[in-house]
Amino acid sequence: MADAEYLTVAEALQAVLAGVSVLPAESIPLLPALGRVLAGPVVAQDSLPPFANSSMDGYALRAADLVGASRERPATLRVVADIAAGAVWEAHLGEGTAARIMTGAPLPAGADAVVPVEETNEPWRDPERPLPGQIEVYRPVNPGDYVRWPGEDIQADEVVLPAGHVLRPQEIGVLAALGVAQVQVVRRPRVGILATGDELIGVEEPLRPGKIRNSNGYAQAAQVLAMGAELVALGVAGDTEADVRAKLQRGLEAGVDLFVSSAGVSVGAYDVVKAVLEQEGNVTFWRVRMRPGKPLAYGRYGGVPYLGLPGNPVSAMVSFERFARPAIRKMAGHTTLERPQVQVVMQEEIRSDGRESYLRAIVTRGPAGYQATTTGGQGSHIMTSLVKANALVIVPEGVTVVAAGERLAAMMIDWPETVF
Ligand code: AMP
Ligand code: MG
């Protein structure tokens, strides 16, 4: 590959996103659809509310019967019915009469308003108390008072939610109210996670000379799960092309939509991942002008998009954030792909090497807005600096020194309630 393939972060992200597309729809039950993206618009089959009903416990009546009513000169109405929530009173409410009505109960025909129970001489609190024969009402009401009319919230046949909308708890509630028991959402991306390296041993194994535990396999798996995607764990491949090929074959058989591997994409003697991609797939690029995370391969294997992350744990996680996460969000149907960014005032001088740099930092709210402090050692093997961080502060390409007090963009990888 020539130097032309040494891309900026923006170019690399654009290439990655161009290589993935939104997945097909599937129909699933309502509650598991939480967090998913609607594949098509939802059209209301009913109006909400479906019928005129009372917004208070009180009396349904005709507003005209209360004209001039006051504490001193109450209006007296005959009570002809008791309408509980869920019940229906079929008759017509005539002049000079009222029906006791509970919140949510249907407004009877003939009535045009409700007066709250507190405005009458019958503020019942005792369920044993019999229905009064008549009531006195102490104030007039306007037609429509304390009535919720049908369709005030949603009209039947209206588009309630457009395609691409993300289902939060409030959308789940609306869909339930509309009787949508099954919902058409974009299928969850199936992401195959592969760690590579002869030095890797399992988390449960004791350390041996020269070996380290496979932390990337877990970190990337967790990154996949944290965004609601489906994990296909492909385990660990040793540094041989045959082993990498065998593990990727398992991914193809499992129907993965994206491969994400770590390590083996640099220029070391045993960096076999790139070789496998070059021989049996293709490599769109394999280096990005980014820190951390310069070696980053993107291409295809068996027709499936492939992101080869660097091996260093921080580089792997940061490049996943920068490239894999937006790609997976695109496949899942999201229209906003990137983490939110805020402008921060740097609390210390920082230096960079001219590549677009992502510094682990903690963003807090200070007197002059958001402020950021780096979380210590920025070596790409210092995992604890990511543990302490809630953001990645971005030093733009070409900038080598940022003075304390200068502003930079921070990509929020976490949005803790304690800070905001
Ligand atoms: P490489 O890209 O193969 O040169 O790996 C770069 C660094 O990342 C080396 O120090 C590796 O030991 C380390 N590394 C690679 N894979 C993993 C992994 N799965 N977990 C933890 N560290 C890793
Ligand atoms: Mg290696």
What does this structure look like?
The chain is of the alpha/beta class and 420 residues long. The chain has 4 domains: 159 residues, MoaB/Mog-like domain (Molybdenum Cofactor Biosythetic Enzyme, Chain A); 44 residues, no CATH class; 96 residues, Beta Complex (Molybdopterin biosynthesis moeA protein, domain 3); 72 residues, Beta-clip, CATH 2.40.340.10. Helices cover 18% and strands 31% of the residues. The chain has 7 helices and 28 strands. The strands form 8 sheets. It has a 7-stranded mixed sheet, sandwiched between helices. Strands 8-5-7-6-9 form a 5-stranded mixed sheet, with no helix packed on it. Helix 1 crosses helix 6 and helix 3 packs parallel to helix 6. The site of adenosine monophosphate (AMP) has 18 residues, from helix 3.
CATH superfamily membership of the largest domain, which one? MoaB/Mog-like domain
CATH top level of the largest domain is: Alpha Beta
Low-pLDDT ranges = none
Strand content: 25-35%
First and last CA, distance: 45 Å
What helical percentage do the residues reach? Answer: 10-25%
Count of the domains: 4
> If helices are DSSP runs of H or I spanning 4 or more residues, what is the number of helices?
7
